[in-house]
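In keeping with the milestone schedule agreed at the kick-off meeting, the structural modelling team has produced records for the first pair of proteins. Each record is given below as a sequence line and a structure-token line. The laboratory manager (R.T.) confirmed that both were archived under the project's standard naming scheme.
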Amino acid sequence: MNTTAMRIFVILAVVLLTLQFKTHMVPVAGTWFDNFASLSESFVLGRLAYSEQNGILSEGALLGRSQGAPAGVRERDYQYTVYFESIPIKSFLLYKSPPALHSLFFASIDAISPLTNRQNHQLFLWMASLFSAAIFSWFLWWVAQSFGLFPAGIGLLSIFLSPWLVVSGGHLYWVSGSLLVPLMVGLHLHQKERQGKTIGPGLFFIFTTLGVLTKCLINGYEIVTAICVLATIPVFFYAILDRWSFKRFAARFMIVATGVIFAVIISMGVLVKQIDSAPSSNMDGISHLKERFSVRTKGRYFNENRTIPENIKESQLVSISQVLQKYVNEGAFYYQFGKQAAIGKITFQFFLVLLVMLTLAQFFYFRDDLMKTLVASSYIGLLGPLSWIVIFKSHSYLHVNINSLFWYLPSMLFLYVGYGYALKLLWLRLSKPLKN
């Protein structure tokens, strides 16, 4: 493949995605771009303000928010004011779900930056956008290497126009590029191995651990079961493509799975240490993790006297199929014809149907090894979202507005590539008679 063309494509991808994630220059998400997961992002701003006044390691470097917002002002909006105007913090409410060590990085820059806090905030948004753009471009580079530049171009266009990826790419809490790191580490190593380089089991273990750990140390355990499945997708992909023996597949899968588990354990240890070192924490780290697991799965608190919110009670009464229905009916893309028209949506269910259609096209027409591998891996990837819905039903029911990102890990991304590759195969087959 033309190296110059590849470099130009990757640079173009990084630039376009960075601009889209930061500036929303093609407004595919409407007002949602400014409101996505605003509560989560406000915890990062609260942390920055608290670090500025009390030190970057204060309260275990945990996220949180300043309390005492004026009447009529939402607590989440008040965090921006506190940070921008350096308002003294009298009471700080901890948010102990993620380690969020990237906020420690932001706070370190904030401590030495000559810029104003408003300018630093913009700098951090640019940094998050660039990071996510770089990871997605890494994915597109792999696509170009494996499927060609045209499918990679279709992938770039699809990512650029995907509202879910646009609103989360430069988000200071989600930094959605971090979700893709476990996949990319695996794809990169397996591709290098396929090209003839010797990569031992130790390297697969170490880099899988680092990939999953990167995700967990940024946004914690959000959709973590989907991440665990995602980290194993490269094993399935190359095992199917190169027809590995079961022995080779099982050995590689166990190495990667062990790395995944090890990464989650390490990140939990970091979070426990953070919580235990926070003077204002009302619970030790291990007990906190146990309670959060109980709440997200069963909707129960350890303190039996604590009132359970009605929405959590409701989440325990619905079936898994009802929760799944909410997710497949969630919009993947939104559109509007004319200024007065109602906003419509193309749901994830539509794309699941497209996956079935692509499967039929592969079975009856293409019969291409790469397409077969891509389709099969897309189906395996669906185990990620299903695992989160089944295990964490309560959380899934309540947070469709953020958890739907799991459809991209990696099934939606692979589907984008699949249709680009299908068009390429179709063109090659139709053009053959013309050449003859």
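The second protein of the pair:
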Amino acid sequence: MLEGLRDAASRILTMRRVILALEAIAEGQARQNILIARLVDRFAPDAPVVNAADIQKLTGVSHVNYHEQGQIQDYAERVYRDTGREPTEDEIVRFLEGEDTRL
């Protein structure tokens, strides 16, 4: 019976040591997580949140027509290739208003 109590006490002490070791590991992991979060904030911060209202206020554009955007890029490349300069905003507007650019 005394030997059974010693075995039980030994198991309890062993379990206590395991619990203390696991608690130390958990504390170390928590410290590492804090340090990793600081590194992420410094070297890979979250992208800023951009909303449509801010973009419209800054640019005056409420939406992007990707078809027209592609036409403008093609036109700008063609003008640059032919003249060595980029087209002005007025030239781009006149180009977009032309009949050949309508769908």
